[in-house]
């Protein structure tokens, strides 16, 4: 079962800041073997190393540097969300939420905004991230975010957003291999994708074309796809536009064939039908507006 936990991110962030797993273990009052075990488990979930290890300590990899910034913000948001103010009354019952790893940062920031604007008693949230929805026990959660396929359970489903995808490569790769002008040229380039073989449909104004994707570089995570493309190893097919936006702005990635669109994915919010809670009822429409903080997430009408 592949999951990324907040504890793993905490161990990772502390190890980066102290430059040593041993120092992190001392500060967090745990054993260094446990810190190492949890960070290795996190790296296994992401499909790439986060730390370069040496006798003198650790330092973040290229991906580790990026994930450190995200994890630091994530932990800060979560601490703020769950912090207890002195003098407050009893906290509300915890709301359990499951989120795909790729959406966790977006949802956490939205939860923090909800908590700040809430006039009711302090909202308590238990959050779990997952890579595959089959990794989690669905019935134990109040809300579940999922992408595209709905699980076969009796939950109430809300359409929240639409994820749009694109084709990306690094400026270095494009300078060597040239810019794409026609979709058919994809089949002649080294491709980066998450499936061994798949068919994709590209659509432009009044025109569509189906292509067979046979990737030379097979990845098992969004982070691995982005880093492989940014390093100039090939053309990444199917990076979410919201995930690529930061790298485009930093000039590490360039979108190819922008006039050709890939099929989009729906983001669903599933609510347990047996849970009736006023905070939960207010939280759902708030989370449905997650698209508003990322323009690359298109709202479904």
From TrEMBL:
<keyword id="KW-0238">DNA-binding</keyword>
<dbReference type="InterPro" id="IPR036390">
    <property type="entry name" value="WH_DNA-bd_sf"/>
</dbReference>
<dbReference type="InterPro" id="IPR058163">
    <property type="entry name" value="LysR-type_TF_proteobact-type"/>
</dbReference>
<comment type="similarity">
    <text>Belongs to the LysR transcriptional regulatory family.</text>
</comment>
<dbReference type="InterPro" id="IPR000847">
    <property type="entry name" value="LysR_HTH_N"/>
</dbReference>
<feature type="domain" description="HTH lysR-type">
    <location>
        <begin position="8"/>
        <end position="61"/>
    </location>
</feature>
<dbReference type="GO" id="GO:0043565">
    <property type="term" value="F:sequence-specific DNA binding"/>
</dbReference>
<dbReference type="Pfam" id="PF03466">
    <property type="entry name" value="LysR_substrate"/>
</dbReference>
<dbReference type="Pfam" id="PF00126">
    <property type="entry name" value="HTH_1"/>
</dbReference>
<dbReference type="InterPro" id="IPR005119">
    <property type="entry name" value="LysR_subst-bd"/>
</dbReference>
<dbReference type="InterPro" id="IPR036388">
    <property type="entry name" value="WH-like_DNA-bd_sf"/>
</dbReference>
<keyword id="KW-0804">Transcription</keyword>
<dbReference type="GO" id="GO:0006351">
    <property type="term" value="P:DNA-templated transcription"/>
</dbReference>
<protein>
    <submittedName>
        <fullName>LysR family transcriptional regulator</fullName>
    </submittedName>
</protein>
<dbReference type="GO" id="GO:0003700">
    <property type="term" value="F:DNA-binding transcription factor activity"/>
</dbReference>
<keyword id="KW-0805">Transcription regulation</keyword>
């Amino acid at each position: 079962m592949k999951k990324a936990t907040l504890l793993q991110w905490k161990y990772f962030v502390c190890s980066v800041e102290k430059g040593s797993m041993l120092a992190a273990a001392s500060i967090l009052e745990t054993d260094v073997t446990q810190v190492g075990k949890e960070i290795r488990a996190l790296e296994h979930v992401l499909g790439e190393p986060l730390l370069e290890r040496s006798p003198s300590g650790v330092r973040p990899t290229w991906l580790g540097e990026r994930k450190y910034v995200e994890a630091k913000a994530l932990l800060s948001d979560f601490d703020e969300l769950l912090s207890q103010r002195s003098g407050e009354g009893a906290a509300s019952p915890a709301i359990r939420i499951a989120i795909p790893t790729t959406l966790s940062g977006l949802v956490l920031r939205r939860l923090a905004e909800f908590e700040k604007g809430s006039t009711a008693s302090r909202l308590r949230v238990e959050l779990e991230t997952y890579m595959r929805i089959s990794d989690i026990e669905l019935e134990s959660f109040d809300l579940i975010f999922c992408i595209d396929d709905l699980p076969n359970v009796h939950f109430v489903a809300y359409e929240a957003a639409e994820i749009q995808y694109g084709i990306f490569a690094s400026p270095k790769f494009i300078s060597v291999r040239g810019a794409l002008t026609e979709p058919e040229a994809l089949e002649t380039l080294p491709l980066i994708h998450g499936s061994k073989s798949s068919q994709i449909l590209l659509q432009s104004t009044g025109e569509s074309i189906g292509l067979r994707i046979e990737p030379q570089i097979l990845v098992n995570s969004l982070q691995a796809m982005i880093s492989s493309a940014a390093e100039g190893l090939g053309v990444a097919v199917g990076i979410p536009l919201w995930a690529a936006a930061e790298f485009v702005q930093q000039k590490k990635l360039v979108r190819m064939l922008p006039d050709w669109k890939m099929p989009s994915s729906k983001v669903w919010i599933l609510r347990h039908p047996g849970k009736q809670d006023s905070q939960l009822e207010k939280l759902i429409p708030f989370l449905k507006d997650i698209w508003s903080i990322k323009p690359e997430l298109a709202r479904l009408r």
